[in-house]
Design brief:
Blueprint: H1 25-47, H2 57-70, H3 76-99
Helix pairs in contact: 2-3
């Protein structure tokens, strides 16, 4: 884990400085870009706290719903619904693999 140092000067500061360190200029640029993105997300959530699930959350919910409903069905139809539901999990895994 990276050590973090926090220096406080006031009780309720209105501004702050963040010092970034990196092994190379490329790493430092990547850290700066990620920090900028994270601060933008935090600002947007503070301005409008409504969130939309992402990262395959919809596919996971559909898969879970299909599996739950297939428990009440017997026979070949149940097997087909379970197989179809598992395909949504594979879509989510492919999204994770392709995004990295």
């Amino acid at each position: 884990m990276t050590p973090i140092s926090v220096f406080l000067r006031q009780q309720a500061p209105k501004a702050c400085s963040i010092v970034l360190r990196g092994a190379s200029k490329d790493v430092l640029n990547e850290i700066e870009r990620n920090l900028h993105d994270a601060m933008g997300v935090a600002r947007n959530v503070i301005r409008d706290p409504r969130l939309v699930p992402g990262g395959g959350a919809c596919e996971m919910a559909v898969s879970r719903g299909l599996k739950d409903r297939s428990a009440a069905i017997e026979g070949v139809t149940m097997s087909a619904k379970i197989a179809f539901a598992s395909r949504f999990l594979h879509v989510h895994m492919l999204q994770c693999l392709c995004s990295s």
